[in-house]
Specification:
Layout lengths: L9 H20 L5 H8 L3 H29 L1 H20 L4 H29 L2 H32 L2 H22 L14 H13 L1 H31 L4 H29 L1 H24 L5 H27 L6 H26 L5 H19 L1 H5 L6
């Protein structure tokens, strides 16, 4: 650990990482059980409902390309304060939306603001830790993310069932206010030297070019994008598949999503167990086997006519176990080669993940047809890409040694 981490206790660092990284599942998972109800309430088509998620994630990805250089220039704290303030405002706007169109607008603003928090969290890890240690610390923060994800879907389902979908969105605003308060009261400087030229156009272009040409960055970014693509396929389609196609109640859907998050948490613990024993590349290779096994089994059962909750949930648990290993390794690995431009590298890595999600969201919006196939085959596609990346590019270019 670098001496700069002494400015904040390790427990506080993990708490902040958990909260900031947890913005993503809170913003997506908590409202998913309410998605069918709000779609019906607004009388909107399914494709428009999908846009409340895909537009949020596109704004999330693109905004990080702005937040990253800003945080390299001014530091992580100012970016976090501005971003989290905007997040709370947009969350309140979403709660009070009077139409699907306004909800989409506020969710887009919310996604852009969320980019400040998640991008800064990844950059903070590189500010304070060398890459291999950073992967272990990131896995702890992502365990916290998993715990929040475990709570999000059941809480969203309960709020939607007991009250209405607006209460689920209000809970998101409350979480954002908590994050803003913790950052404002407890967050200390982590960036040792601000890059005063970070916002100059020539510097921005050179930095992006350097990042995009680096094979280690590309290998790990493809891994993180494929892993998140599989997760997003589940997030975007699962409420319709489990509730409308398979007939689960909203609270039981929350239990299903809780189970997925629980296996993701187990994956982060497995990641921390494997890293010192196997190293990053072998851990990722084994996780690729878990991902491919889950995706292939899910597709095989569906194609064989097994259309029920267990035929999807059990294979998905295998995929989520691998996801818990891929994400900390890939996110820290992608940023590792760039200690002086961690914000920009974090932003580009996040942008690739959200680009994959946005593309998948558009495809799902056009292909959800009242069957399990679009979701199942989508997850299978990402699992194949995950395994191929883990077994080839990461093995060739995935050495991270902190230099």
């Amino acid at each position: 650990m670098f001496t700069r981490a002494a400015a904040m206790q390790s427990g506080l660092i993990i708490l902040m990482l958990s909260l900031l990284l947890g913005l993503q599942p809170i913003t997506t998972d908590l409202y998913l059980p309410a998605l069918p109800a709000l779609t019906t309430g607004f009388g909107a088509p399914m494709a428009q409902a999908q846009l409340t998620l895909s537009a949020l994630l596109l704004a999330f990805g693109v905004s990080q390309l702005v937040w990253g250089p800003l945080s390299d220039r001014f530091g992580r704290r100012p970016v976090l304060l501005v971003g989290m303030s905007a997040y709370v405002l947009a969350s309140l706007g979403s709660t009070l939306s009077g139409s699907m169109e306004m909800l989409i607008v506020w969710r887009t603003v919310q996604g852009a603001a969320m980019g400040a928090g998640v991008m800064s969290a990844r950059a903070i890890v590189r500010d304070l830790y060398a890459p291999v240690e950073g992967a272990r610390v990131m896995s702890k923060g992502l365990t916290g993310l998993g715990l929040l994800a475990c709570l999000s879907a059941p809480l969203g389902g309960a709020l939607s069932a007991w009250f209405n979908w607006r209460m689920a969105l209000l809970a998101v605003a409350i979480f954002g206010a908590i994050c803003l308060a913790v950052v404002g009261l407890k967050f200390k400087k982590t960036l040792a030297h601000k890059n005063l030229a970070a916002l100059q156009p020539a510097t921005v272009v050179r930095t992006w070019a350097l990042i995009l040409k680096h094979p280690t960055f590309l290998a790990f970014s493809l891994l993180s994008a494929a892993s998140y693509g599989g997760l997003f396929t589940l997030l975007a389609a699962s409420s319709f598949v489990f509730i409308q196609v398979l007939g689960l109640s909203t609270p039981m859907y929350g239990v299903v999503m809780f189970t997925n998050s629980l296996f993701y948490i187990l994956g982060t613990f497995l990641c921390r167990y494997w890293l010192p024993r196997l190293g990053v590349r072998r851990a990722v290779a084994l996780a690729g086997g878990l991902s491919l096994s889950g995706g292939t089994l899910m597709a095989a059962l569906a194609l064989a006519g097994w259309h029920n909750v267990w035929a999807i949930l059990l294979p998905q648990c295998l995929f989520m176990l691998g996801h818990g290993i891929h994400q900390p390794c890939s996110q820290s690995g992608a940023i590792g080669p760039f200690p002086k431009s961690a914000g920009a590298a974090s932003a580009m890595n996040g942008f690739f993940m959200m680009l994959a999600a946005f593309a998948m969201g558009g495809w799902l919006g056009a292909h959800l047809d009242g069957t399990v196939y679009p979701m199942v085959l989508g997850i299978w596609f990402w699992s194949v890409l995950l395994a191929l990346t883990a077994w080839t590019l990461v093995q060739k270019y995935g050495a991270i040694d902190g230099h």
